[in-house]
Amino acid sequence: MRKQLLISFAILLFLALGTIGVVLYGEGYRFGFGQGGPQVMGTGLLVTTSTPDGAEVFINDHLSTATNNTINLSPGTYTVEIKKDGYFSWKKKITIQKEVVTKADATLFPLAPKLENITDSGVDKPTIDPSFTKLAYTVASQSARKNGVYVLDMSARTLLTLQSASTQIADDTIAPFSTANLTWSPDGQNILASIPSANPARPTLYLLSAGGFNSSPQDVTETFATSIKPTWDKQIQQKNAADVATLRPVLSKFVNDNWNILAWSPDETKILYQASSSATMPTIITPPLPGTDSTPEQRTLQNKSVYVYDIKEDKNFLIAPADKEFGVDYKLTWLPDSKHLIYVHDKRIVMLDYDNLNPTTVYAGPFIDGYVFPWVNGQKVVILTDLNNPDIMPNLYTIELK
Asked: pTM here?
């Protein structure tokens, strides 16, 4: 009888210890040696993903696994590098915390991206709409009927060729629209065509519908400044105010006092902005969230420097210092994945992580005047270039990013 009790007790003890072991293992604890002897040590989880997948993961220069996998690591800071043949590598220092899941999510850009033209009739002054789905541009190299204003729909899904995505919305039979400067309305429904006149200070203004051909374009030269422009300005102000109002009150006040917002990320989780004054950002989330981006941040703002703020993680990253003039020395645009910026400077097109890491030059060939736009699905960028050939007109080309 006593023997049976001992056996039963041993079985129960074994099951209890096994259950505790499974729970501890699931929470990231591992048996190892430390401080001179064996012990159960807490670990953290590193989840590695990549686009494209199937890349190699190096931790402190040691090949450890492939992407789309999870690794247990002791708490500490590690250098994580993700590599795949034919692509630029991705590298970052990542801090692992006990019982915390941390992500290493790498987008790898091709070493030899494909360049493809999407127009062939000569393009001038392309401009992207507020939704980043349509490009308007002028053509001046064809007949009067073919010259004019065109709109390229980058969101069309049923196209046989990219060239077929462009629609003419105005020609040169009524006015020389091929010479116009184009401005989108805040809602993306209309385009203001500003045609140079004998008086440089007083161009002729037409309001065009972006949705189809304008057989009778509306001349708004006399009414734009007093009627249309105030309406557009009010729409922009109301949208900006509504967006800022979604932030926590402390942050909302700080933004209104110290930021000039340049662009919200497409998923509205991050803000690209230029500091309008020197200030120190308050802490918005207390205590800090576990497993967040471990890249060192900058919360002491310098006037005219450019930053990205991550709303979900309450992290602020310096992108460009004040000694560089935004719009002149460089241009920044969100990639549709909301994780990267298109950074145009020094005649190069660079993909930049939103925390200012992994700058990757995807194109260093010729392109014109900083005309660089993201394709709607984030798999391409659009540039305007004549390929340094003086005998051809500039056209729109795509650069593959995947």
From this structure: 0.87
